[in-house]
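Risk register update: the risk that structure generation would not scale has been downgraded. Supporting records follow, first protein first.
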Amino acid sequence: MTGFQVRRSTREPLNALSVSLAQEFSDHVPAGTVIRSVAQAREALLAVGVRAGLVVAVESMTRARLQALAATSGSASSAADHEQLSTRCQQSPSAASEGDTRDEPCAQHSARRTPRPTLRRAHDVRTRR
């Protein structure tokens, strides 16, 4: 088997892995982050000499990284909170002024959104000369 055939035989499963992980984590992290995570895991494993079982190792490494990112972003719970708060604000926008401390005004709950974490690549960071 030539080097080209080896790369092609691993590229197709890695592409399928990227697609399935992007769909699985679509509510938590951007698709670009998933793709970069898969590429970085592949590069790291190839650098240490992993050849057999590369796709399985990349999947477990990427899944762990994405789960950590999803946990730190808290986007699943914050998305549910946001939907619940926006529904409450639409039903009764003055609930907070009536003494209901559980509800937040629309301006506050829309500002509560946390930015999605992204993985930074080495060339994204500019160095001083």
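Supporting record for the second protein:
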Amino acid sequence: MNASEDADIRTPYYGEWVWGMAFPDGSVSVGRMSIARRVSPLAGMTNASAGAAVWCVSKDECPYEREIGLIGTKTTTGKSELFAGMYPDQAYQWARFIGLDADGLVGTEINGQPTLVGTGSWQYYMGSPSTTVGFAMTQRSTNPPVKAVSVGPSPALTSKPEISGANLRALAPSELRERAIAAVNKAF
């Protein structure tokens, strides 16, 4: 994780990522992100890349609408956090999901592959209440299946001021994160 934009021109987090969300009611959701394009360092975000994100019902069945997936470093109040997000459209008016990695580092918790595990906030519709979730995502391949993704400018990450590492880690028990890891392992 780096709070300064890296001079390396490669796309950070490039590849196919699979994710799982564990909700407090016991339900889980799974999906994929095809991270294929570096985004400009705006709105407190550095070393970020974006691509297509979809929800899935199984490993090979992802019938739901496509969204924008984003992975990078977010800096708020002088502290950097490893961040993942999903946005319904390029306007980035609201985030369906915002998550912060628990230790701020890409780990290897799932099958020894690059992995993010942490706590997030999920909001199904704009204006609906958000819920705290555990999340896990791991890189399944270094070749993103969807490469030509049109993405707008970097999102304004100020729409959810309650999202900070300290707030999120305090809200979700480690049990939610463990269930998210299990969901990824089971689905993919």
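The chain has one domain: 15-187. On this basis the risk owner (M.S.) recommends closing the item.
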